[in-house]
Design brief:
D-Amino Acid Oxidase, Chain A, domain 2, FAD/NAD(P)-binding domain, single chain, ten-stranded mixed sheet, alpha/beta, 361 residues, 21 strands, elongated
């Protein structure tokens, strides 16, 4: 039998690691397990857009959760920087959303009105203002809006900071230690890996698209959980002059953003192809075409690299809940917004866990 912990977190991506760090800051002993290297899947592949202005299409609780998490982000990054000493490329860069053609213009304005209803500000840009914001842009955009509150972060930096911050808080990080099975009761959990058994008062299942690969039982009886599944996305990266692109640029399913180093990302696709990593040459060619149509400097340019990642989808959407009244908690189904939702996920889930375990830890 492995060493007892207060909490075992299954999955060491940005979601799982933020939860582990948050719980450790509350004084709990935490063990974090991952099937591979920490933050090596969706967290490493993601573009890092923190952009409710590009996501919200209706006024609902999901929209408010996105906005809340963005509000938490500056403090989250500041605390990570302070505890880890790692520099994090985080910027309130804003985003420019483009429309080409009458139908797109109508949709642009309609979505801006919906987003304003939940406090997401935007402003129209005329041709001169658009050229000032994005000098690299091709001319034919018929209309544009600027979302000043949208932001971006390099998830590789966040993951590096979380590794250091978790370690300094005493989190035990076990890599290449896939959790195969969890048995949960109201009193505790047992987690089985190839290397042995771990026990804890509570556990969090935060394995992203792989969450359903863990067999979960409650006192030996199979416990049905919402199915998790991968949604593949392609990205490409170019080398441009640092500072040549300020805000995120969006048009339909296409986006372009730039790291401080000048590395410029373009995406994306949304594909239900299972765990086929690809990449698909046709998808890459399509993203290159779309990015080149927006920015002439990218037309015909050869990307430095292309890659794929698996967004964590789940039946029923995002799950932040206790599993069947047991000591197992769920934190998966973030789909396109795992990096954005990390701080709010950790705040809400950890508060619920601490409340439920009051007097037992």
């Amino acid at each position: 039998m492995g060493q007892q912990s207060d909490v075992i977190v299954i999955g060491a991506g940005i979601i799982g690691a933020t939860i582990a760090w948050r719980l450790a800051r509350e004084g709990l002993s935490v063990r974090m397990l991952d099937a591979a290297e920490m933050a090596s899947e969706a967290s490493r592949a993601g573009a890092g857009m923190l952009a409710p202005g590009g996501e919200v299409e209706r006024v609902d609780q999901a929209a408010r959760f996105l906005i809340e998490s963005l509000r938490l982000y500056p403090g989250y990054i500041a605390a990570l920087r302070e505890e880890s000493g790692v520099m994090i490329d985080f910027r309130m860069s804003g985003a420019v959303e483009l429309a080409i053609g009458d139908r797109e213009i109508h949709a642009l304005e309609e979505l801006a009105a919906i987003r304003a209803g939940v406090g997401i500000a935007s402003e129209p840009l005329d041709a001169a203002a658009l050229r000032r914001e994005v000098p690299l842009l091709h001319e034919p955009a018929a209309a544009a809006r600027f979302y000043p509150g949208d932001a971006q972060v390099d998830p590789v930096d966040v993951a590096a900071a979380l590794r250091v911050a978790c370690s300094r808080r005493g989190v035990v990080i076990e890599e290449y230690a896939a959790a195969h099975a969890v048995d949960a009761t109201s009193q505790g959990v047992t987690v089985r890996t190839a290397g042995g058994t771990r026990t804890a008062a509570m556990a969090v299942l935060a394995a992203g698209a792989w969450s359903s690969s863990v067999a979960v039982t409650a006192a030996g009886v199979p416990l049905p959980l919402p199915e998790a599944y991968p949604v593949r996305g392609h990205l490409i990266g170019y080398d441009l002059s640092p500072g040549s692109l300020g805000p995120i640029v969006r048009h339909g399913s296409t986006y372009i953003l730039q790291r401080r180093t000048g590395f410029t990302l373009g995406g994306t696709t949304m594909e239900r192809t299972g765990f086929d990593r690809g990449p698909d040459p046709a998808a890459i060619a399509d993203i290159r075409r779309r990015c080149g149509a927006l920015m002439p400097c990218l037309a015909g340019a050869q990307p430095l690299r292309a890659w794929t990642g698996f967004r964590p989808g789940a039946d029923g959407g995002l799950h932040l809940e206790q599993a069947g009244g047991s000591a197992l908690w769920l934190a998966y189904g973030h789909l396109r917004n795992g990096i954005l939702l990390a701080p709010a996920t950790a705040e809400h889930l950890c508060a619920a866990m601490l409340s439920a375990s009051s007097g037992r830890l």
